[in-house]
Every structure is written in structure tokens, then in C-alpha cells.
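Could you help me review a protein record that somebody else here produced? This is what I was given.
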Amino acid sequence: MSSQEFQAAYTSIDSTGTFLLQYLKEFRDGLRIQGDESQGLQSIEDEINKALKALQDQKYQVAVIAAMKAGKSTFLNSIIGADVLASETAACTICRTDVRHIKPGETPKLLEYREGERKPVILVEGDAGEIQQKFLQRTREIREQGNPDNTTRFEIEHPIEAISQLSSLTGFTLVDTPGPNEWESANFNINALKQTALEALRTCNAILFILNYASYKDNAVADLFKDVVENRKDFIAENTGKIYFILNKVDQKTERDKEIADVIKDLERELVGFGFCNPVIYPASSRQGLLAKLIQQEKATEKEIKDFEDFFSAKYAERDEKGRRVIPLPEEIAPRALQDSGIPTIQETVIQRITQNSGWNLLSEVVAEIDKAAKAIEDTLNTDIRGWEMGIEALKQKVEEYRKRSENARYKVELVKNTVEQEKQILIQGFSQGINIFADKAKEQIGSEIHKIAESRRSAKSPKLKENLLLPQSVEVKTNNGGFGQIVGEIGERLLELIPSFGPVLGKAFKVTTSLLDGLSESIPEAFNISVSEHIVDSEEFDPYIIRCKTKAEAEKIIKTINKFCPPYIQSWWIDTQDELVREGTNIREKLAIIIQEDIQEISDELSNYLGDALEVKLNINPIQFPSFDFPGIDARIKDVQVAVVEIERKKGKKSRCCDSDQVYYTDEPVTQNRNFFEVNLQQTLQSINQKIDVQTFTNKDLLERVINKQVSADFRSAEKQINDYIKRFQNDFDRVLKERKTKEAEAPEILARLEYQKAKLIEYLSQLSSIRESLNSWKPVK
């Protein structure tokens, strides 16, 4: 489905829904239905409005992920068609920035969102230049001051030229993701990129990986792809269609460099090796594309025009009649330069991807909702017509029978609710198990690294050690899923197969690629020299878990090495765990929603069949519907695991307290000639790490339980509301017709004629919806 076809279908659905709302108003006015009598029709009107609002408010997110100096900001600017984001030479993105499309003519804004504050701060309103300047200023403040305001993300409201002609994509957002956090560390933060990439894979409609033509084989890029793909090959394969690779800055190629086509083939082999099947790669010159767009729009500054002339105009030079080399004016070659930049091709491809998948799903859901509403109106018309045709006593009897049936239906809905509550608890326990596995495995792996250090030191001192100083055994990982069988046995086994088995998957993720022992041995060899420890306290029993240092600087160096090692690994393992939780959560929630849907649908069908038989009319099926959804709550609420470790103790013998945070020791008699020393206790360090992991996982389990409770309950409430509205609507219809029969019996022929006319008019809208649905089905994406 092309963007033009999508736009046409969008417009057709929107206009049909709007006409149906007008029809409903005329229908109510014609029958003079007001007050409580109109509750059933009011619920139908609400559903149509809700569907049309979903059509207008649908969000389409395209995430852009890049390593440092790949030209991400310039690429985004080329899509936006304005120099609004700071380029790599000025600043790096320090936190997520959403560029949300607004209509041309509306005032662009820069907003800042802060943790704990519900409303964003408006930093500036103005043109692209003003936004970029303020954005740069705020970026520098955060980098220099360490983010004292707890800024979580920025949002730029600005027209996006790439979709400016498509009103159907008004909810389009470009997600500018953070790369290396320069304001925190000089090192490249692979974990931050990994978490961003995994979240984008789950939640965004398309993901663009921007690679620098000159450095696409950088280790940082390779490490990112390895981490993203590892243990996720099936998931990656399912989402391959929304992943694109942009080979940026191809304009920097020189005559001595490989041909672009050869570089792309080389990159394809690299990506396939990482696990991306049939990777889609597009060459691009973002700077050329941006400047060409600005020149076409007559928005380019003198400097931008000069840059275009200096860097891009020469390749479009022509020969005149005398053979002289003539360079065309920038405005003459801008359209061709834009096309040659590769930016239009990338835009069209990504938009087509969005419209064929997420866009198609949206249109289909909205058509289904509007069609359901139209058929509900038809059911009301059929009920009214039959109510005026049958005798009034017979109608009273049918109304009384319906009350009993509807009460029974509500009772059955309560039974479904009780079952859902039990199934929800199984779901919570399943995910708690996943978090427990993370905690056990993380502690086991870090413990193993700490024990290796002690073992190395013990081995060097082995002849003098007692048996009780042997290494402790590794932590035993316990996973308890015995509770599932007991609970499932009480309510049936239909959810048992949905519970994820996290152990085998997560077990593969807990790896270390470097050794803490090697890191300490290389950076602090003096701390591992046994003779140093011996001459400090020769008379004391040697403990391989206590590292004694002559100076505080030595001890702090050990601390720095341990802190540098542990948190990144623990955070990486948590990212893997969280990713698995979210993906399984989405899958299970959808399956559980289907179970709820089927249970409520069965109750609804029983009621519909009874009504149809009792009234001797054909009623439409009342489809219990859920829109497509993901499981975003875990992403939004479960926090990153942060672990701070190690305190130094400075010893001289007898413990006292000092004014600082260190524990200080004194003795009346000198133990050695070097009485002062600092020590790092590895066992206490490990205990501290384990405690912090336990505190964090306890918090996350609590958050997880609240998220699941909220979201699964919302799914049930949605189904419950749909059948309750259905029950009430017929009750209102019956009550209204009975009331009218008592006062308007003489007008029965005119009322019946009006109802038949309204029904014939409604059939026209149903026919239009049927045609739209057939057209959509012909564009149905292939899974």
C-alpha cells in the first residue's frame, strides 16, 4: 500500500465515520429520543468518536540509532527539512529527543520533560535556529552540571517535511536516541545504546541504524550489534522488515576509496554475520540532502548556500558550447542533488513500511469499530421495528424474559472476572520468577569473579592456609515454579502453557568477556604481591578476601577497578532480563486478552441468539474487540539496576570512629613498623553488591506486579464494558418502545415507515464500510 493509497483510505474512513455520526444525530432527532432513552445510542456515538479519535491520534515512531560521529543529527535534520538539531561538531544527544510533527504554520517549540513533573517545561517557542541555539545551551548545562533537574527527555514540535503532504500521518514522530553519554563518561556507553535499540525494536514502527561510511567496522558498532542480536535471533528475524541500515556520509568518498556498492556488499556480509538476515542498506549523504531541501524551500542561509556550492555543486558541472566548465546555480541543481542524496528514497521506503503494517492495522481496527457501531444502530432499528409490529402484551413478556437473561449474563461475566484475577496472579508469579533468576545469576557471576581473586591470592599463600580458609562454594541458583502447578490446578490449565520459562534463555545472557582478576592484576599488581601483605602484618592470619594497601590511593584504585567492572555487567544482564520480560509480557498479555475476549464473546453470543430467536429478527454479532497493543508498562516503570560498591577501611588495630565516612582503627602497641594501612574486604564487597541487587529486584517486582494488575485489569474492563453496553442498549430499546406504544399507538404506521427509511439509509453506510474493508484486505501485509 503506497502512501497515496493509505491517505485515500484514511480520508474515506474518516468521512464515512463523520457521516455516520450525522446520521445518528438525525435518527435520534427524528424519533425524538432524549434523556435516559438515548443511553444506548449515546454509547454507540461514543464508540464512533473514540474510533475517529484513534485515527487522528495514532502515533508512528521511527527510532534513529547511531554510534558516535555517524551524522545522526544531520540525517534527522534532512528528514525534518530544517537545521533544528545540533550537529555532531557541536554536541551529542544526551537523552532521548522526540521530534513530533506539527502542521506547517504552527509555532515550533522545544519542551523538556523532568522526572517527577507531570507537565513539560517550554524552553523556547520560535524557528529552527532559535530551537537549536536553546537546545545547545541546555545540553551544555546538563553536561557541565550533571543533570540537577533530572531531565528525562526533550520534545521538539516542528513540521517534518517528509510527511508534510500526508494528513494521515499527523502522529509521526522521529525518536532521536542518545548515543554515548559524554557528560557522564569519556567511554562509549554500549549499555545505553543496547537498551535503546532493544526498546526501539519492541515499540517503534521502524528502526534506522546510522553507520558512518568511514568507520562502519568500528568495535563499538560491532559490540552493539552482537549484544542486540545475541539470544534474540528469532525475535530479530520476526522484525527484520522494520530494520534499516543507513550508510551515511558517502559524499566523503575519495577516488582512492572502495566503490560504494562494494562497501555495501562488505557491510551486508558483516551484518549477516551478526545475525541480520537480508539486511536493507541505503547509502546517504545527509548534509547534501538537508542543504538541497533548504535551497528548494528558499530557507537556506548564505552560509548554507556557500556550503552547498563548496562541497556539492562541482559534481554537477557542465560544459558550455566552448567547452568551458560551468557550475549551475544551487537552486537549479537542488532537486537533482536531493534525489542523489538518497534521502527521498529512504523516506519513501520507511513511510511505505509504516503504512503497510502499523497503518494498515490502525485502519482495519477503526473500520471494525465503525462497522460494529453501524451494525449496532441496525440492531436498534430492527428491535424497534419488531417492537412496533408485535402485540403490546407479547412485547411486555419479551421484555421481562430479557431482564432475566441479562442478569444471568452479568453473573457469568463476574465468573470470568474471578478467573481472570487468578490467571493474573499466575502471570505475576511467572515474571517474578524471571526477576529472581536475574538476581541469582547476577550474584552468582559476580561472586565467581570475587572468589577467583581470593583463590589467586590463596594459591600464592597456600602452604600457610588452614582448611577453613578454602573458597566458599558458588551461589546455588534456585528457581521455584512449583507454585504454578498448584494454582493452575485450581482453575484449569489453559494459562499454564503461557507462562514463560526464563531459565534457559536468561542463563545464556550471564557472561563476562573480561576477568575482574585480570583487571586488578594489570592495574594494581602491588596489591596482589603477598610479600607486601606479609611485611605489613606478618603475625596475623592471612585472609585471601582482604586486600591491604599502604596508601588510600592504592585502595581507591582497587575500588575504581571493581566499580568499573561490576555495574556495566550487572546492568547489561538486567537489560537482557527486562527485554525478555517485556517481550514475553506482550505475548502473554495478548494471549490472555484473547482468552478474556473468547469468554465474554460466548456470553454475548448466547444473549444475541436468544434475542434474535425471541424477536424473530436477524441480529448482528456483537464482536468483543481489543485494539492491537504492546506491554509498555514494564519498559516505562521497571528501573535500571544500579549498583555502587565497596567502602574502604583504614586500620591501625582498635576500632573507633573518625569524622569522615571511613572506619578508622587504633592500637596502643605497634604491630609492625608500618602501622597504617587501608584494606578492601572482598567478602563485604560481595555482600554489599548482593544486598543492593536484592533491594533493586524487590522494588522491580513490586512495580511489575502493579503494572500487570493495571494492564490485565484494563483488558478485562474493556470487554466487560462492551457487553454491559450491549445489555443496556437493548434494555433501553425495549423500555423506550414500550413507553412509546402506550402513548403513540395511533402513529404506528408512520413510525414504522420512518424506521424502514432510516434502515435503508443505514444500509448505504454499511455498504461503504464493506467496500473499504475489501479494499484494505487487498492491501493486507504479508506476515
The chain has a mean pLDDT of 81. The longest strand covers residues 60-66. Residues 392-460 form the longest helix (69 residues). The two ends are 14 Å apart (CA to CA).
